[in-house]
Amino acid sequence: MTHQYVERLSGAVMTEQLFADHIVNFLYSRVRENAPWLFRALTGSHSSAVLGYLNFDLPLTARLLGNRRFLESCGVNLAECLDPLERLNTSRKIFERRIRYWECRPMPEDAATIVAPADCRLMVGSLAQGSLLYLKEKFFSWQELLGGEGKSWQPYFDDGDFTVCRLTPDKYHYNHVPVSGEVLDIYTIDGTCHACNPGAVVGMVTPYSKNSRVVTIIDTDVSGGTGVGLVAMVEVVALMIGEVVQCYSSDRYSCPKPVTVGMFLSKGQPKSLYRPGSSTDVLLFQPGRICFAADIIANMHNRNVQSRFTAGFGKPLAETEVAVRSLLATRENHI
Predict the structure, then answer these.
(1) Which of 37, 95, 139, 169 is a good FRET partner for 197, with 20 to 30 A between their CA atoms?
(2) Mean pLDDT, rounded, for 304-326
(3) Each residue of 165-202: pLDDT tens digit?
(4) Which strands, in side-by-side order, build the sheet including 213-219?
(5) DSSP conformation letters of 27-71
(6) What is the spatial distance between Cα 17 and Cα 10, in angstroms, rounded to a whole number?
């Protein structure tokens, strides 16, 4: 089945090239139904790491594909890459590439804006039942996502808003900070490694709250902050991704350091790096604190887009492809 999305800059409806789609569909239908033990084994962290090595770490893979031809077929702009092409000699290095984001990914100057955390295809939603954006329990279980044991952050986001940002394998895989603020908490939740392919998401109930993930709680109501309350950034690993490397840098990519409690994060700066494959960021906002960009909402409700999410969930749900550090939302009542 075709999966389409809207390209933000042009407004064009694009058809996505789904990597390993036949394998994902087989895994999330026949294997899951007929051999659940095999399904659990293949989506476990160990198997995912092995698959990742075979696909991304062997130099032979990149040579057979031809680095330049592979990059260009994925639509990667070689001029954006910070490192010379000859250093990108494995698929992993290609996927973990650095770019001149300060030149090619401009950020709104307005301090009241929230920006996209990645080059991704995203949708927005609400946990409030009366909202036109109500999408509760479609992509994640609200009771599970932030981790129930010993954590008390869930009540702060009751009836709040959220964004689901899907990074496809060809994308730039650094996550950037969507808001400015102070880190109140950061923790890892163990889980499985389900695929983030649209077919897998529709076929697997609330996969994002079952995958391994890193949760960062940011207080933006501090001096120099964005002023939109608490924001939860949930970085979700997927099939063939073994970890999220926390490597915040306040100056381009220099002097990266782990994200820790008490650290101030500046909007638009690199925060972390996914190991290659597809992966997802989920952003949670407190109720009444932000307004999503109008074009993202309009695109999501476009009935002319053949989206697997629309077919699977029974309502128009089209993604918008956006650039990292581009406008996602603004502070409520901001003029």
Answers:
(1) 37
(2) 94
(3) 999 878 899 999 999 999 999 999 987 756 666 665 66
(4) 13-15, 4-7, 320-322, 120-126, 161-167, 279-285, 230-236, 213-219, 181-189, 264-265
(5) IIIIIHHH-HHHHHHHTSHHHHHHHHHHHHT-HHHHHHH-HHHHH
(6) 18
